[in-house]
Amino acid sequence: MSDTSQGTGGLTFDKTKRSWPSELNVLMALIIIIVIFEALGQILPYMKDQSFLFDSRDRFDSIFNEARLKIIILQVAIIGIIALGVSQVIITAGIDLSSGPLVAATAMIAMSFGQTELVNGYANPKALFGTWAMDLPVIIPIVIGLSFGAFIGAINGTFIAIFKIPPFIATLGMFLICRGIALWWSSGNPISFPTDQYKAIGDGMMPVVWFLSLAVIFHLIMRYTVYGKHTYAIGSNEEAARMSGINVKRHKIMVYMIAAMLAAFAGVVLSSKASTAQAGMGEFYELFAIAMVTLSAVLAVSLSYLFAGVKDISTQAWGTPDARSAVVRTFINVLIATIGYGIFGMILGLLFRSPISAISIGVIWNLIIEGLLSAFVTNIDRYFPGQLLSIVATGGNDRISYQYALFTSYGFLLTGLAIVAFLFKKRDVAN
Asked: What is the dihedral of CA 168, 171, 173, 175, to 10 degrees?
């Protein structure tokens, strides 16, 4: 007889019929995937001995592929540090797309203050600043990196909590800004040769130690502190949390600041582990979704292009008349492109009547379908509005002129507006 317990109204509850948590299903699916790939690596002739977890070639004493496992663990540890902050954002029913580029931007900024003055007795060939920024105590680049992260998080939180901008849009704009800052900080050049103290942050298995320590700390914070209880309360019912006396706006800003600071610390650890900082770091550490179909902030998009040195802008000559003219042209071109993407998003929104559907389809079309077709079919990008708007933002290229991209893209958009206006009138007004 199954174990039962008395319930309300004399009903009984059979514990054996409880459903598994969804997390267990995910775990089992991952285990099955690992087993399948391990089996294929041993069975298929051209995959023989290609195992992720095991070493069947008897090169080491252990049966496990220790080198590969170490690389996987270290990579996961750094991503895990970011996930600790992103999870708090998700609990509040938000999203943070800026964490990946923030890792790169923080790595560049922190490493520039963590460099050593001499390399093999010679001046540091990768020095970004003068001797005043060399051989500083390790706490200084850490504090600078965390402060930068807190600043970015405060901006995200302010836009979301106070100005009521959707988290997807606000953090997407910051995604572009941080990517631009990472490229602009050293004009795209890597920053290398850190001090021994800075290298010690990510030396060996230290990233794992940092991740486990932070995981324990934030577990205790989320479970036993007022901060954690307020975070869960806002995620469950924001209006009820506000009526309960929780300062929702202030708490959301704090959550985004903490998430950004954790991403910034991950950038410090990653640059320390690699002993170098590059603008492309963290490129795949977040949900890589650049959805230009949405009406993101014009300023955010414009600054990203300016910081990245797009077109003929020189960061060493911003005060010259040519540079000022280039800045104005770039701003106008990006503004025109952003309006075009916004019109495209509005067309999709009117067609599908769902913001999620419009964003998803827009991202898939612009980011995947247009990109794939353009890669395999010559000159087909001349007839894609998304590709043409990107060309408008950069001022044209060698194959497609600025004028053609501008008029053709907006021709497509105006035609689409006319179609959806007709459908809207027939579907919504007439009925």
From this structure: -120
Size (the chain), residues: 431
Per the model's pLDDT, the better-predicted residue between 378 and 429 turns out to be: 378
- The token pair that represents 161 in the structure block: 């909590």
Q: Return the domain boundaries, the chain.
A: 20-53, 66-289, 321-425
Q: Alpha-carbon distance 239 to 330, whole Å? A: 42
Q: What angle do CA 59, 62, 67 make, to 5 degrees?
A: 70
Apex 31 CA angle, 27 and 36, nearest 5 = 150
Q: Residue written as tokens 């023989």?
A: 48
Tokens of 106: 């923080």
C-alpha 52/C-alpha 44 separation (Å) is 15
* Distance from C-alpha of 210 to C-alpha of 143, rounded to nearest angstrom: 16
Q: Reduce the DSSP state of residue 14 to 3 states and report it.
A: strand
322 closest CA partner among 333, 335, 311, 334:
311
Cα distances (Å, whole numbers) of residue 233 to 95, 228, 230, 241: 17, 9, 5, 6
* 3-state secondary structure at position 113: coil
3-class DSSP assignment, residue 94: coil
pLDDT in tens, 64-106: 666 777 777 887 788 888 888 888 888 898 888 888 889 999 9
